[in-house]
Amino acid sequence: MSRVMNFNAGPATLPIAALERARDELLDIEGSGMSILEHSHRGKTYDAVHTEALALVRELMAVPDTHDILFMQGGASQQFAVVPMNLLAEGQSADYVLTGSWSKKAFAEAKNVGKARAAANAEKDGKFLHIPGEDELELDSSARYVHITTNNTISGTQYAKLPDTGSVPIVADMSSDIMWRPLDLTNVGIAYAGAQKNIGPSGVALVIINKALIEEGRTDIPAIFRYKTHADKDSLYHTPPTFGIYLMRNVLDLVKKGGGLAAQEKKNREKAAVLYSAIDANPDFYRSSIAKDSRSMMNVVFNLPTPELEAEFVASAAKEGMVGLKGHRSVGGIRASIYNASQLAWVEALAQFMKTFAAGK
Amino acid sequence: MSRVMNFNAGPATLPIAALERARDELLDIEGSGMSILEHSHRGKTYDAVHTEALALVRELMAVPDTHDILFMQGGASQQFAVVPMNLLAEGQSADYVLTGSWSKKAFAEAKNVGKARAAANAEKDGKFLHIPGEDELELDSSARYVHITTNNTISGTQYAKLPDTGSVPIVADMSSDIMWRPLDLTNVGIAYAGAQKNIGPSGVALVIINKALIEEGRTDIPAIFRYKTHADKDSLYHTPPTFGIYLMRNVLDLVKKGGGLAAQEKKNREKAAVLYSAIDANPDFYRSSIAKDSRSMMNVVFNLPTPELEAEFVASAAKEGMVGLKGHRSVGGIRASIYNASQLAWVEALAQFMKTFAAGK
User: Fold this and answer.
1) Which one of 3.40.640.10, 3.40.190.10, 3.90.550.10, 3.90.76.10 gives the CATH number of domain A16-257?
2) Protein fold of B261-359
3) How far is residue B159's CA from residue B290's CA, in Å, rounded to a whole number?
4) How much of chain B, in percent, has pLDDT values that exceed 70?
5) Fewer CB within 10 A of the end CB, N or C, for chain B?
6) Is A102 a catalytic residue?
7) What is the pTM of this model?
């Protein structure tokens, strides 16, 4: 078996030790005579996994006591609807900062539910090349919340720090950079993330939510969509995606053993620096259109002189065991996704390949 | 490694060959150098799995061309809300046949969305001991749909055949008996099921829906909850629970190789007959309160003379490698869940144990 260097944008590479653990106990976990997939979600074996996963999230992210941690289904796309369903009462409005395709989708879904307005729109000529500064935000001080997308997987931009939104709580889609580094959650009303980029497989959404927002949530929506329903039952109101939470537990256990989010940030910054250096070292051949202060540490997006050279680049890299480098179909170019589980050696190999490839042209 | 005889009610036992296949390729599927968990949902490897899973559902269940097949998230509990959100327009009402806790939950959620009424309620003194006959149904001929729960995991009852609802389409929660046997879906508007009992792991819901109902679905609800959104994108509108669908594919591939649903029905009827015979052979010790024509082929529920004997029964059976036999906390007693993947040898062992246990008292 030969594992590739996986630069997929998501679902993405997972730590090999998390997968090996899953493989080794896939038919029999802890001598129970069955797979974790076959355990009741109300039994002791699964309960220990569930509780440990919640505790790891709380410890790693230093989630304050003011906030609850929920595991939900439907990914971030479902949260696009569930957030306004819970929070937007009649007459209330939410602010959305538009920094890419995903924030536009979140905004569109909010308008299917209630009132929402764009507090800023970073789109120019169909492209999103920077994160709006605070001076560009036209915030409504009476907004119910301000929605942001902390990292934009398609365009390759990322907030260097959370914006100051005054007394209006931030709701952050952190699907593609959750746990990439330590973050103060005090002023974050809701942080949500599909697990499949930084912390686990698809099919689990992590939601960290201020308890006050849970209590203030609408009660005239279906029970399954109320945050309170899930908070009251420790995310066991209905059968959770048990294997997904189990695998997330495996991943987070390794993050903790690796030194937590401070160590994770150091590693992630090192990886990104290697690639951005390789781009900047050869500006005639590799082109990054992203504003430097908005560059993503998770998705390094760049162009070659022509689409033909980009296609050749992707094909040649694949022969060297580097896969998933094709940019998103909507923007083209090259995208190297370097989430938490990707390795420094991979980006070093990619940087070397970039040098050799450019020299040969 | 010693696998137990797993009588869990769900998540439930899975075919060992489906798990072994998952284990063997968990770090590298088909020489791709990565796990199915790490593949993009837009890539060739996952796409082949997704397409095969859809095709297996269509073939095994003989799904007519009039119906679409969807993979969704949130389990049956989410469908409790999503069905009325899509189908109930202003002024319309739906009929619910109440045959257990789950149909009551579905009914309550429908009332959170719109208008719903009980067409029958089988509850008597807090118990659900039979499936109402057609003469007991007070159907509203102008109802948008009639909702039934085909098998009731907690009380242990099951429809022997679908009721005649005239021109009103049936919406069936088939979570605990989907694919237990061949079924004519012509008059079924929607059949939905969480996968975690008969066909896979938790985190995937299978929805089979008449295309006319998709087209008639409300468009003023969030896009993520419209059946049309998922139908238009072959259940790839957003990132699906890829591993869950992969494992369902593994399971359904085995069902097909084992002779399809006709063979499955034969095996399931044999298993149930063994246990009901063991109960009926000793009516002084084992008591089934369920009407005989309503007995479930999936969840065999019975009582012993006292709760203390029931606790001893569960503990002694566990020592013999038979686990998951404790009845649901809301009704007590014993429950042997014998879904598709459970083995005839297990129920034979359990029947023998029942004989020995009773003889020793």
Assistant:
1) 3.40.640.10
2) Aspartate Aminotransferase, domain 1 (3.90.1150)
3) 12
4) 100
5) N
6) yes
7) 0.98
CATH 3.40.640.10 residue window(s) in chain A: 16-257
Residue B186 to residue B122: CA distance in whole angstroms = 26
Identify the residue whose tokens are 């001991």.
B129
Supply A306's token pair: 């022509």
Q: Could you say which of B173, B228, B267, B326 is catalytic?
A: B173
Look up A44 and say whether it is catalytic.
no
Spatial CA neighbour of B345 closest among B278, B280, B271: B271
Contacts of residue A237, Cβ cutoff 8 Å, sequence gap at least 6? A223, A224, A229, A230, B77
Closest C-alpha among B261, B280, B204, B255 to residue A239: B204
Interface contacts A/B by beta carbons within 8 Å: 214
Find the mean pLDDT for residues A99-104.
Answer: 97
Query: Which residues, given as ranges, of chain B have pLDDT below 50?
Result: none
The pLDDT value given to residue A171: 98
- The secondary structure of residue B128, as a DSSP letter, is E
DSSP E strand stretches across chain A: 5-6, 67-72, 93-98, 115-121, 123-124, 127-128, 146-149, 151-152, 157-158, 170-173, 188-194, 205-210, 299-302, 322-323, 334-337
Helix axes B307-319, B344-359, angle to 10 degrees: 130
Contact assessment for residue B224 and residue A81, using Cβ atoms and an 8 Å cutoff: yes
Residue of A nearest to B326 (CA): A43
d(CA A193, CA B24): 30
Which tens digits make up the pLDDT trace of B89-104?
Answer: 999 999 999 999 999 9
Rounded to the nearest 5°, which phi and psi values hold at B143?
A: -65, 150
**Virtual CA dihedral for A311, A317, A319, A324, nearest 10 degrees?**
-80
Copy the structure tokens of residue B55.
């095709």
Contacts of B111 (CB under 8 A, 6+ apart): none
A75–B239: do the CB atoms touch at under 8 Å? yes
Specify the pLDDT at position B329. Answer: 86
CB within 8 Å of B35: residues ≥ 6 apart: A14, A19, B25, B26, B27, B28, B29
Residues of chain A with CATH 3.90.1150.10: 261-359
Q: What is the pLDDT of residue B2?
A: 86
Contact yes or no for A75 and B238 at CB 8 A: yes
Neighboring chain A residues of B75 at a CB cutoff of 8 Å: 73, 238-239
Q: How far is A359 from chain B (nearest CA, A)?
A: 28
Cβ of residue A113 closer than 8 Å to a chain B Cβ? yes
Using an 8 Å Cβ cutoff, are B185 and B179 in contact?
no
Q: Which tens digits make up the pLDDT trace of A175-228?
A: 999 999 999 999 999 999 999 999 999 999 999 999 999 999 999 999 999 999
pLDDT at A329: 86
Q: What's CA A92's distance to the chain center, in Å?
A: 28
Choose from B196, B239, B326, B339 for mutation: most chain A CBs within 10 A. Answer: B239
Q: Are B3 and B16 in contact (CB under 8 A)?
A: yes
Confidence of residue A330 (pLDDT cuts 50, 70, 90): confident
